[in-house]
Each structure stands twice: as C-alpha cells, then as structure tokens.
Amino acid sequence: MEKYLQCGRYRFPLIGKDARPLVMGILNVTPDSFSDGSENADLNFLLDRAEAMINAGVDIIDIGGESTRPGAKPVSLELELQRVMPIIYALRDCGIPLSIDTYKPEVMREAQLAGVDMINDVHGFRAEGALEAVANSDCALCIMHMQNTPQTMQDQPQYDDVITEVSDFFAERIRTMQQHRIEKNRLLLDVGFGFGKSLPHNLTLLRQQKLFSERFSLPVLAGLSRKSMLGALTGKPVELRLAASIGAAITAVAHGAQIVRVHDVAETIDALTIWNSIKNINQQGIEQ
C-alpha cells in the first residue's frame, strides 16, 4: 500500500497509526440526481449543505454537476461548468479537500485551476484528453469502473468473471496512467457499484474490496449510499435507505475500503467512529 494519498493540497495517511477510514460527502449540483437532486440548488443552499458536512467532520467534499444515475441524459459542457464552478470557488478555502465528479477534460482543467484536490471520473479517465488534463497536477484521481454508459449500464449487465474483469480494467488504467507519468500515490480505485452491475455482481465486489486494495497497493473508494442495490435488499425506497447506507459503508470498510462516498455524512461518521474505536482499541487507549 502507498504510504499516503496525495490529494492536491492535502495528504491522507493510508498506513500507520494515523490512517483511518475517510468519509467523502456528496454535494450534487443537479436537478435530477437519483436521491438528492434539487431544482432549487442555489449557491446559499449548497453552502449550507457543505457547512453541515464540514461541521460533522467530513474528509472530502465531492461536487457533481451531471447526474450519472441509470438512464441519465448527458448535460452540455457549458451547463456543467455553470453548475459546478461557483460552488468550487466558494469552497476552495474551506479547509477541506474538494473533489469534482466529472468525466469531461474541460471541466477537469477548469476545476483544477479553481483549486480542486481530487478528480472523480466515472469513466476512468478514458475520454480523449482526460489523462493530458490531469497529468501535470497533484490532484488525486479516482478511477471508477463502469460497464457501458449511464444510459445503458443497467441493461442486463453481464460478466464472465466480474472480479477478473474489473481487475483487468484497473490494471490497464494504472499502466496507462503511469505511462503518462502520473504518480501512483495520486490514484485510488472505485469498482463502481451499480454502474453496469447486477445485485450479485455488486455483492461479490463488496466482499472483495480488500482484494483490489492489496492487488494494486492502492486505496479503494466505495460508493453505496442510497443505491438501488440497497433497495433491492431491504425493499425500502430511496428516502428510507439511511440505515442500509450506513450498514453498507461499515461493511465496505470492514472488507477493505479506505474511503466511503455518502450522502449522510454525520450519521456515517458516527458509525465509523464506533467501528474504528473498537478495531483500534489498544491504540486508542480506551479504558477497559
């Protein structure tokens, strides 16, 4: 495992006594995200949500201006920039690393100039010009696996061996990024729960988070919050998936994920605090 994740202006330890599970809070600037989109997402509303995350102890804020839910329609470059740039500029000195959730190289470039610390790409930096856009920065780069596109990804996804195929994808992406002289300590992996996966695929990948981390010596990010796989398991609609989302985050960390991407920041941090305290009881010095 790399000693730390280089995340723009920040470094997160990945091994040693200071390493702990990290919480990435989702800040969607979209009207059509599957669980928290809003037509009324003006700047003050978004700043209030960001402030609540910061007060709760969030580690990273992930800003997204284009929904990638199943069947979502692409948005134009101009509209995505109009959505995300004001909140990036408003938050860039908030003391918390900022991530931009985008696959467009032009948005990557503008966001880096504005001060983001991570780029979270659901297409795994496969768009033409994406690698060139990020090669010379120190931003962390989240490589996500997705089969097909958001418009078609849940149309009967199929794999001969989901673990092998996702691993092969990561191996190719890491090799290509290193050919672009991108340092490995900037990279993290996301298997892409719900992005071209059935429920059995998702559960298999969840159980094997540690395998990916150990195979590539890189941190793994798990994005399970409020997703349809949790609805399939619990029978609950998206607005009633808080407990399932917290359970999924704890399960992901217990199985090897270093970062969880969530909507419900305060609740997830509380749950992880308990889990981490028990895991490290001797190091924490808690009275027995």
TrEMBL record:
EC class name: transferase
Gene Ontology BP annotations: folic acid biosynthetic process; tetrahydrofolate biosynthetic process
GO-annotated cellular components: cytosol
Enzyme nomenclature, EC number: 2.5.1.15
TM ranges: none
Molecular function via GO: dihydropteroate synthase activity; metal ion binding
Sorted UniProt keywords: Folate biosynthesis, Magnesium, Metal-binding, Transferase
Cofactor needs: Mg(2+)
Domain (Pterin-binding) ranges: 21-273
Any Pfam family matching the protein: Pterin_bind
Pathway: Cofactor biosynthesis; tetrahydrofolate biosynthesis; 7,8-dihydrofolate from 2-amino-4-hydroxy-6-hydroxymethyl-7,8-dihydropteridine diphosphate and 4-aminobenzoate: step 1/2
Reaction equations catalysed: (7,8-dihydropterin-6-yl)methyl diphosphate + 4-aminobenzoate = 7,8-dihydropteroate + diphosphate
UniProt xrefs under CDD domains: DHPS (cd00739)
Signal sequence bounds: none
Gene3D superfamilies cross-referenced by the UniProt entry: Dihydropteroate synthase-like
PANTHER family: FOLATE SYNTHESIS PROTEINS, FOLIC ACID SYNTHESIS PROTEIN FOL1
Role description: Catalyzes the condensation of para-aminobenzoate (pABA) with 6-hydroxymethyl-7,8-dihydropterin diphosphate (DHPt-PP) to form 7,8-dihydropteroate (H2Pte), the immediate precursor of folate derivatives.
UniProt record similarity statement: Belongs to the DHPS family.
Name the UniProt record assigns to this protein: Dihydropteroate synthase
Organism: Solimicrobium silvestre
